[in-house]
């Protein structure tokens, strides 16, 4: 799973017994050499899907880590890009990365549950961070994102279809989540990272409740499951230009 430049088993164990913030501070120098970093294929597919939905002015990468999502925003935003994370170690690595010319990039250390912005962004993205939020935290998180988007702005993130029940992937994720629950029951501080709690149906309802209009876009490069559903979708939640009278839930993208 890890390249020779990645963390050792001992380093991973120390991280796992730390808080989420401290754990990522420790992992940051080697994070890009782990399978936890979002693959380039996903980043490229999201950038391609977002391009025709623009143009976008200012972009925010929520829980940016070492900045992979910032590179996506730089391709589709004209004015400025901001990366936000609560790990000082991850932000330090992000700042050191060399990036091609593009919009101005700034970095902010803050908690995604208490964003230090007004409605300043046209596009917010997030990659691979939602396992760090418990289901009960999603309403507050989505309300925060809604508050920092300008009217008509978008909140976009990829979602991978869950593995088929009974498959090796299903049991691997179930085992990981079970081990994490045991760890958090026995050890403090907790390390919140669960793979099976971010369910698309629940997420869509909470986004709609926060005021978003939600569309699902298939990312075709990843194919379809045996039942015909996409293996990877892009969730696009748009803050309406005018307030809605009620939630609209999940819907496919408009024709054309």
Automatic annotation (TrEMBL):
<keyword id="KW-0808">Transferase</keyword>
<feature type="domain" description="Methyltransferase">
    <location>
        <begin position="60"/>
        <end position="153"/>
    </location>
</feature>
<dbReference type="GO" id="GO:0008168">
    <property type="term" value="F:methyltransferase activity"/>
</dbReference>
<protein>
    <submittedName>
        <fullName>Class I SAM-dependent methyltransferase</fullName>
        <ecNumber>2.1.-.-</ecNumber>
    </submittedName>
</protein>
<dbReference type="InterPro" id="IPR041698">
    <property type="entry name" value="Methyltransf_25"/>
</dbReference>
<dbReference type="GO" id="GO:0032259">
    <property type="term" value="P:methylation"/>
</dbReference>
<keyword id="KW-0489">Methyltransferase</keyword>
<dbReference type="Pfam" id="PF13649">
    <property type="entry name" value="Methyltransf_25"/>
</dbReference>
<dbReference type="InterPro" id="IPR029063">
    <property type="entry name" value="SAM-dependent_MTases_sf"/>
</dbReference>
């Amino acid at each position: 799973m890890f390249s020779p430049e990645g963390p050792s088993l001992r380093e991973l164990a120390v991280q796992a017994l730390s808080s989420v913030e401290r754990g990522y501070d420790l992992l940051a120098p080697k994070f890009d050499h782990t399978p936890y970093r979002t693959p380039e294929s996903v980043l490229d597919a999201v950038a391609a899907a977002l391009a025709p939905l623009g143009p976008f002015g200012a972009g925010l990468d929520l829980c940016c880590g070492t900045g992979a999502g910032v590179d996506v925003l730089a391709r589709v935003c004209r004015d400025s890009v901001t990366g936000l994370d609560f790990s000082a170690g991850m932000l330090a690595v992000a700042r050191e990365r060399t990036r091609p010319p593009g919009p101005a990039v700034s970095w902010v250390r803050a908690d995604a549950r208490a964003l230090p912005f007004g409605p300043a962004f046209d596009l917010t993205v997030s990659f691979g961070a939602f396992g760090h939020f418990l289901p009960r935290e999603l309403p507050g998180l989505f309300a925060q994102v809604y508050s920092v988007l300008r009217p008509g702005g978008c909140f976009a993130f990829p979602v991978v279809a869950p593995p088929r029940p009974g498959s090796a992937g299903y049991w691997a994720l179930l085992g990981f989540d079970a081990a994490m629950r045991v760890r958090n029951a026995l050890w403090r501080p907790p390390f919140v990272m669960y793979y099976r709690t971010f369910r698309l149906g629940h997420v869509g309802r909470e986004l709609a409740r926060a005021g978003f209009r939600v569309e699902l876009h298939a990312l075709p490069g990843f194919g379809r499951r045996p039942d015909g559903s996409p293996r990877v979708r892009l969730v696009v939640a748009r803050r309406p230009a005018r307030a809605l009278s009620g939630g609209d839930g999940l819907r496919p993208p408009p024709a054309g």
